[in-house]
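Supplementary Methods S3. Complex input for the iron/sulfur cluster-bound model.
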Amino acid sequence: MKLVVNWPLCDGNGMCTVEAPELLDLDDDGNLVVISETVPPELVGKAGAAVSVCPKQALRLEKS
Ligand code: SF4
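Predicted complex, serialized as structure tokens:
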């Protein structure tokens, strides 16, 4: 699976990084950083939680 960010919607609140810190982080300026766009099978659950928690609907999971 692939984790895709709709960048214009993302406001950098970082809630997704709590759910999937292996995949998502914030930089020092509070901007979202995608550590890995490719989601390994063992992290699909965490990626889904990150998608669900995003208040801006800025994340989605796609088949890669
Ligand atoms: S939770 Fe959504 S809006 Fe917040 S940093 Fe993550 S992708 Fe951006």
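The mean pLDDT is 97. The longest strand covers residues 2-5.
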